[in-house]
Specification:
This protein is α/β, with parallel strands linked by helices. The chain is built from 15 helices and 13 strands. Among the domains are: 136 residues, Rossmann fold; 130 residues, no CATH class. This is ATP-binding protein. Keywords: ATP-binding, Nucleotide-binding.
Length: 418
């Protein structure tokens, strides 16, 4: 099945010939190779580029093992550049090549070479590598299918049915090729253990992965919950019956983020206008992978919806923080008390911002008051939105807060800062 990834294809097309190395990143199996070798290559051919001027190497393929040697790869590419016309160099899983920065930088000054690479390890985006690229690396972050992309597969009778499946099995592109639920479950379980965990163990030379696996289970069970390494250390002691240092936990969390499996959302004090480094929240790049990890035992609609909303915001290019707003009130005894109210997401794009609260349902006036309370105490002019489950009609309430059902939100890919 051909799945259009128009957002990413258009971004790639917009940066052609810009003198920079285009670096396509994202979790393994999210569609980077398909984007580069199928969609982008076809767009080149459709626009008149001769196929012999497209140099592509799948470095993950065993047949390309010799090309993982940096000098051999350089010789191979150079051997295919035989005239002064533009050549498009497409390299998949470039992190498998030692000193890949040197290889890529070798083409920065060659005017008829336009370089595109994919990679699944965020090491290639760290500050030292960006220095190696001399500011001439352009990152395009690819995610699993968004809900709007998922809908375009045309497999569902209704949008609500599609959302229910999306919340359970997520948006890894291969999922849409399976009609049987058991095959979907087996694929995701195999992908998690056979690809992601194995990659991390090999990359960081981890021999005993018991603690890493336990940590993943704890994070998966607590998506959308504030936590920090010290809290996680205490959980190991109380629940798992043994100790693991917060330093080790921090290291493991970094590995999961490097593999693009989870993302960390840092807490921000809205009134104080400063970041609070701990505690933070962790969200899975794909909820289907999270559910498979827990063997589909914890299908909590509220937490899954929150994770999906976070992912959608990141797909749309927002930086996303977890918010808190301080409120001072008086209790029944007339004593002044200080409360910290949580805002699920603070979304920033340039000089614009919006605040989002996720609520699976709001069946009563008391629940509506609870879910909008923190937003009502933010005294600025930026948009404030509560996203709710189901098919509740979207509207704006008397406080100026937008109430939007989750399907409308996920479908409205052009939604700007209202």
């Amino acid at each position: 099945m051909k799945i259009p990834r128009d957002k990413y294809l258009q971004e790639l097309q917009s940066v052609m010939h810009n003198g920079m190395i285009k670096i396509i990143t994202g979790v393994r199996r999210c569609g980077k190779s398909y984007l580069l070798f199928e969609l982008f290559k076809q767009s080149l051919l459709d626009n008149g580029v001769n196929e012999d001027h497209v140099i592509q190497v799948d470095l993950e393929n065993r047949r390309s093992k010799d090309l993982r040697n940096p000098d051999t790869l350089l010789d191979y590419i150079d051997g295919h550049i035989v005239d002064n016309d533009m050549y498009y160099i497409l390299l998949d899983e470039i992190q498998l090549v030692p000193e890949f920065e040197d290889v890529l930088n070798s083409y920065l000054k060659i005017k008829n070479a336009d370089v595109y690479v994919t990679g699944s390890n965020s090491r290639m985006l760290s500050s030292d590598v960006k220095t190696e690229f001399r500011g001439r690396g352009y990152e395009i972050r690819v995610h699993p299918l968004s809900f709007s992309e998922f809908l375009k597969t045309g497999q569902y009778a209704s949008e609500l049915n599609a959302l229910q499946d999306y919340m359970i099995y997520g948006g890894m592109p291969q999922i849409v090729s399976f009609s049987d639920k058991k095959k979907k479950e087996n694929y995701l379980k195999s992908l998690f253990q056979g690809t992601y965990i194995r990659d991390i163990k090999e990359r960081y030379n981890i021999r005993n992965d018991d603690d890493l696996n336990e940590l993943i289970d704890i994070i998966a069970s607590n998506i959308g919950c504030l936590t920090n390494p010290t809290n996680l250390e205490n959980t190991f002691k109380s629940v798992k019956g043994h100790s693991i240092s917060d330093t080790t936990i921090q290291s493991y969390l970094g590995m999961l983020q490097d593999a693009f499996m989870v993302e960390k959302a840092i807490r921000y004090d809205i009134k104080g206008k400063h970041y609070i480094n701990t505690p933070s929240k962790y969200y899975f790049e794909d909820v289907g992978l999270r559910n498979a990890r827990l063997n589909y035992r914890q299908i909590d609609g509220g937490h899954l919806m929150e994770n999906i909303i976070y992912n959608e915001l990141r797909i749309r290019g927002y930086s996303v923080d977890v918010g808190q707003v301080e409120v001072r009130t008086t209790n029944a005894e007339g004593k002044k008390i200080r409360k910290l109210l949580e805002v699920d997401f603070i979304c920033n794009s340039g000089n614009k911002r919006m605040y989002i609260q996720s609520a699976l349902d709001m069946p009563t006036p008391e629940k509506i008051d609870q879910e909008t309370n923190s937003l009502r105490h933010i005294n600025d002019g930026f948009p404030k939105i509560v996203i709710v489950g189901g098919l509740t009609p979207s509207y704006v309430n008397t406080d100026g807060i937008s109430i939007m059902n989750v399907i409308d939100f996920l479908k409205d890919t052009e939604m700007g800062l209202l």
